[in-house]
Specification:
Blueprint (H helix, E strand, L loop, with lengths): L1 E9 L19 E9 L14 E9 L3 E6 L6 E3 L3 E5 L4 E12 L5 E12 L6 E5 L12 E3 L15 E3 L6 E4 L2 E13 L2 E7 L1 E8 L2 E8 L6 E9 L2 H4 L6 E7 L6 E8 L2 E2 L8 E4 L8 E7 L4 E5 L2 E6 L15 E9 L12 E12 L1
Parallel strand pairs: 11-14
Antiparallel strand pairs: 1-8, 2-3, 3-6, 4-5, 4-7, 7-8, 9-26, 10-15, 12-13, 13-14, 13-26, 15-25, 16-22, 16-26, 17-18, 17-25, 18-19, 19-20, 19-21, 22-23, 23-24
Length: about 350
């Protein structure tokens, strides 16, 4: 069922536009039309049977690509043929705005918005990516990249004291868990020598919105800095913190038992006067496994430990400064050593973060 709420616009009004010598090569699409089918809709279920799925088909004269913006969001889904599939997840019956933009070969556009009413019975998240760490040996090259290049003149940021390596000494799978091992040892690479080694794993999988669950047991020792976190996949083009950072779990060995959950954005790095940081006390962080999770939606980031909500990031005003979390992010698992804020116990030898699984649901 479609509610007849339609708006149409473009970068020029077709009835009043006149070409000039400068822009006479401009191509402006025309005759944009949209059809929307709510899957499962019939006489008894005009708003769908409860799956939340819709199919959108758009067409326009002189259009070469199409974009879809759902319910006033900032992220545009693109299609070359004007066909889109989308699944709504909010339970109950709701109205949503679907804006389709038709682009020409000269990047000029027109747009059309339709409102659709969709019924969602219940939404069950599906596992879309995971690593269960069931194969002994090296870390899966299909799932992870071992990041070893230190970006700050042969060192890592924050004054960290380790080099990350791709050796089995620092990252391997055995007996059903991933071990990320921090060791005290002199190691030279990229022209610098560090007193410690460890590993940093970047997922080759990226996604927008969903639930991440990581079951892990953390290392022990003054100076250890394990983290389970995420970065925007666009970091190479926009930099940090414009890409957005989601810290699902951070722990500093000199603050035993204190678990941190936080975000980093252009508006605030960690805690600020108007932005808090989630803090949870877990006494057995290094002897027992705990499930560290985040639920990432278009509206909020909800941090969860062992099924219990511990912190929410949900700025009242969402823009590029406060909410860069509208695009793909990838996962990172690492154990750093020391930094500008704290040193390392001189008696430290080695300690590991064990990870039982990493799972992503949508």
């Amino acid at each position: 069922m479609l509610i007849t709420s339609i708006s149409c616009g473009g970068n020029n009004e077709a009835g009043t536009f006149s070409y000039t010598d400068v822009d006479k090569e401009m191509v402006l699409p025309s005759d944009l039309s949209i059809s929307v089918e709510v899957i499962g809709s019939d006489g008894d279920n005009p708003n769908g049977a409860g799956s939340g799925e819709v199919q959108i088909i758009a067409s326009a004269t002189d259009a070469v690509t199409y974009g879809l913006v759902v319910d006033g969001g900032t992220e545009e889904i693109t299609s070359a043929n004007g066909k889109f599939g989308y699944t709504f997840k909010d339970e109950g019956t709701h109205d949503y705005n679907l804006k389709v933009v038709a682009y020409s070969s000269t990047a000029h556009s027109i747009q059309l918005t339709k409102t659709v009413r969709v019924f969602v019975d219940s939404y069950e998240a599906k596992l879309i990516w995971s690593d269960e760490f069931n194969v002994d040996g090296a870390v899966s090259k299909e799932n992870w990249k071992l990041e070893t290049f230190a970006p700050n003149n042969g060192s890592w940021w924050n004054g960290e004291l380790q080099h990350y390596t791709n050796r089995l000494d620092n990252a391997y799978v055995s007996e059903g868990t991933l071990k990320i091992v921090a060791k005290k040892e002199e190691f030279t690479t990229q022209g610098t020598t560090k007193e410690y080694t460890s590993a940093r794993l970047n997922s080759l999988f990226s996604f927008t919105y969903g639930r991440v669950e990581v079951r892990a047991k953390l290392p022990k020792g003054h100076g250890t800095w394990p983290a389970i976190w995420m970065l925007g996949s666009n970091i190479e083009t926009v930099g940090w913190p414009a890409c957005g950072e989601i810290d699902i779990m951070e722990h500093w060995g000199h603050e035993a038992g204190k678990i941190s959950s936080a975000t980093h954005t252009p508006s605030c790095s960690g805690g600020c006067p108007d932005t808090s940081v989630g803090t949870t006390i877990i006494a057995d962080y290094d002897t027992e496994f705990h499930v560290y999770a985040v639920e990432w939606t278009k509206d909020a980031l909800n941090f969860i430990i062992d099924g219990e909500h511990v912190y929410t990031y949900n700025p009242a005003i969402k823009n590029n400064d406060t909410w860069p979390f509208t695009r793909d992010q990838f996962l990172i698992l690492n154990v750093a050593m020391g930094g500008d804020w704290f040193g390392v116990d001189p008696n430290f030898k080695t300690s590991s973060m064990e990870v039982d699984y990493v799972r992503v649901y949508q």
